[in-house]
Each structure stands twice: as C-alpha cells, then as structure tokens.
Amino acid sequence: MPWKRACWHDLTGVRRTVPGLVVVSVAWLALVPAAPSRRAMEEPALLVTVGDATDRTAVVWVRARAAAPVTIEVGRDGDESVRTVVVEPSAARDFTVRAKLDGLVAATRYRYRIRAAGAEREGTFRTAPAPEDRFPFTLLWSADLGARGFCRRVGERYAVFDAMTARRPDVFLFLGDTIYADHRCGGGGAVPGAEFVARTLGEFQAKHRYNREDQAVQAFLGQTTVWATWDDHDVRGNFAGPTEEFMPVGRQAFLDYWPIDVPADDPTRLYRRFRYGRLAEVFILDTRQYRSRNCQPDGPDKTMLGARQRRWLIDALTTSAAVWKIVASSVPLSIPKAWPCGDSWARRGLALFSTGFAHERDVILDALLERAVSNVVFLAGDVHFASVIAHQPQPGFLLHELLAGPLSARPKQPDAPSHDLNPRVLFSAGGRPTFGEVEIGAMGLTVRVLDGAGGVLGTERIAPAPSSSYLGSAQSP
C-alpha cells in the first residue's frame, strides 16, 4: 500500500512534508565537538535503535559520529520498494536523530538500511497488530546495565543480550538503569570511556553511548523494537526528580539516546501506553520525574507518579479493552528497597513513621478493584533478582508482580515481599544476571525467568480471569 504523507517539525517552527515520515531533529544547546580521540576513531560509525512501535508508527533512532547527512531507507520485508529520508544530526544532541515513521501496516516486518559518511547498518523491526486482532505476543524485560565492576570488558560483550536475541521477542522493555551515571567504570580490563560520574549533558550522553556501543547490544536492538524508561541510576541513586539538580540534564540525555515518541505539547513526558492487538496493552510509568522525597513520611500528600500521571494510569487501565494489562514500573510493587528511606512502592517502616509509597499504590489498587479491572500484571526491575509473585490484597482481586534483572550489575539474593498485599511467591532466583519473558497467547500468559546465558530458571503460567474475553484462538504472525 502507498505510504501516506506526514510531516516533521523543528523548534524553529518550520514545517516540511516528507512521504511517510515525521523526522525530529532538534538542537537545544550549542556544544562544540572536541577533537576526535583514539577511542572516538574506534567507535561504531552508526548506532541504530527502533522503538515505541505501534500498529501504524515506529521511531527510528540513529547516532552518527559527525554532523554528516544520515540516510534512512525503510521498506516492508520482501518488498523491493523503499522510502528514503535524509536527516542532519547535530553536535548539540551528540549527533543523534529520531525519525517517526507513520502510515505503516499492522503486524508487518520492516527492514531498514541506515547510511552516513560511508558507514552502513541494516536491521528489522515488526509493527504491532491492530487492536482488534488476536496475535500472540512475546515481550522480554530486564534492567540494570553497566554498574561499577560490571561495565564493558575488553574483548568481551554484554553476553546477556546474545541470549535475549536468541529468544526472538516482539519487544524488549528496558525498565530503567539503562546506564549507571553515578558509577565510575574503571580498573583493569574495563573498556575505557566511562571512568567518571556524569554531571554535564555531554557526560550523561557519553554514558549512554558507552553502553549502546557494545556489539551484543547493537545486534539485539537491530532485530527487535524497544520500549524504554528510566530509573534512579540513569541520573543518581534513588533520586526524586523535583529535588535532583542533575535531573534535567540526565533526562535530556535519556531522551537524546532512546527512540521515545514524546508528545509535542509535553516534550519531557516519559509515561505512555502501547496496544498490542486484542490480547495486551502495556502502560509504561515514569517513577522518577514527579516523585516526592523518599524520606517524606508516607501518606496522602506523598506521590511517586504525580496527580496527573496517577489519574492517567487509573483511567487508562479502566478503559483498556485488552485482555492483559501490563504495567511497567521501574521499581517493585511489594519489595522494600533502600535504607533508611524506602525507594519502591512498598512500605519501609522507621521508628516514628513509614516511608515508601504504599499509600499511593493502594489508592491505585483500590480504584482498580472498585472498577473491576482484571488481568493486571506489574513488571519491575531495580532490585537485582528475579521473582514471580501473586498478590490478593482483597478477596476476588488477584494481580501479579514479575521482577527480573540485573543485566550487568551486582546480583543479589531475593528479598521477601511485604505482607500488606497478601503475597504468595511462586518463584524466585538470585545471584546471577536474569531477564524475564512474557508470552501471551490463546490460553493465557506464561512468564519465564532466564539466566544470562539463556537458560530457563523457572516458568509460571497465569490464567486469565473467568470474565475475560478469550474467545477463539490467537492468529499466527
């Protein structure tokens, strides 16, 4: 089918039409590029990631090595016809550009070729099925990449990404700590380039670039799409956005380095939702930008999401027509984390009061119970172990919490969930890198926890609520 015409905008207000594409290439700060170092000469000439794909759109992200024209060619797999757009990266965005494709065909694999300054990279991605179609869905998730002592190693690669590539997922959900901006990567055997704590925009960008240059990461991201959100180490450990001085530059670097389809009227918004056919819808939270201080006593005036995002989440879950509603929260629902002040949703008791964000969590869950929202699954990372937990906070109200990670950070042994949600631990594993796999099909949801080499550590099957509309079988992709 012919691609419909769309347009791209920059902050100068110029409007241009490009067939089938919305290209965003915005320069906010004027930075002067330094002379290329030996390391810069050894960097991959092109980094590419496709993300925030829907049934009709996708965002192609490219990082070049210089301000040279970048040519993006995209076409349906098996079809010789392609559409081409040329964009210009700038030093202000560390030579990154984003191109939003629209007019795509649902449930279709596309191929792309990116060219710049004599370098070339190819890859593929798949669009989501239309909302009324019942396609099976495979999602991988994890978090925590490149902590101190677990940074890139000379002659090695982040092998967990090779294991994830072998699973051939539809989407990868990166649940934060995509970098460790507040850790120094150094010592014998570490790949140079991240031996500092990030404080400037350029340093935060360099941290992102360091992880994305890994060969296994690039190979994985060349075969799937990604939904990314941030967590504390993308800026500073356990930070709260409104009171964190490095939040603005950390947020800008995160937006520069991930293919996120931000709304034009709210260009720093990270929370969003994605429908994947009839069977699944994913709701990605921003648990950092709007949160109260962790040490504030828990209560009605304390928030992790902010009032606007909280209303959005409750309303979106209530109105979703998908069978499974997957909430992506970078921090756990029931595992207390950080001391002395809780950083996760779970209650953290101190001598005279409690911290954490359990009051707001319970407001959300009470609203879902009142509105009879079923088949809700929370995915999280951050705690460096894996767990599958069934919660029944009220009779007849069942939800699940699935944890995975780290990708490359210090593994921990599993902690017990707090008791206030009436939890039942179905499976847990620690002491090693892990990632999770959610597979949704005609019979329900299957969750697997895998180790860094791709070995299956545990499998749990979750049946949908009896009231769910599970008529017919899932279509083949």
Account of the 3D structure:
- With 477 residues, this protein is an alpha+beta fold.
- The protein has 2 domains: 127 residues, Purple acid phosphatase-like, N-terminal (Immunoglobulin-like), CATH 2.60.40; 331 residues, Alkaline phosphatase D (PhoD) (Purple Acid Phosphatase, chain A, domain 2, 4-Layer Sandwich).
- The protein is 14% helix and 30% strand.
- The chain contains 7 helices and 25 strands.
- Strands 3-8-5-4-13-12-11-23-24-25 form a 10-stranded mixed β-sheet, with no helix packed on it. The chain has a 7-stranded mixed β-sheet with strand order 14-15-16-19-21-20-22, with helices on one face. The chain has a 4-stranded antiparallel β-sheet with strand order 7-6-9-10, with no helix packed on it.
- Helix 2 runs parallel beside helix 4 and helix 3 runs parallel beside helix 5.
Helical residue percent? 10-25%
- Find the CATH superfamily of the largest domain: Alkaline phosphatase D (PhoD)
Rounded average pLDDT: 90
**How is the main sheet built?**
10 strands, mixed
Q: What's the overall geometry?
A: globular
Rg is: 22 Å
Alpha-beta classification: alpha+beta
Strand order of the largest sheet: 3-8-5-4-13-12-11-23-24-25
Give the CATH architecture of the largest domain: 4-Layer Sandwich
Q: How much of the polypeptide forms β-strand, as a percent range?
A: 25-35%
Number of helices: 7
| CATH class categorisation of the largest domain | Alpha Beta
- Compute the number of structural domains: 2
CATH topology type of the largest domain: Purple Acid Phosphatase, chain A, domain 2
Low-confidence segments: 1-41
Q: How many strands?
A: 25
What is the CA–CA distance across the termini? Answer: 19 Å
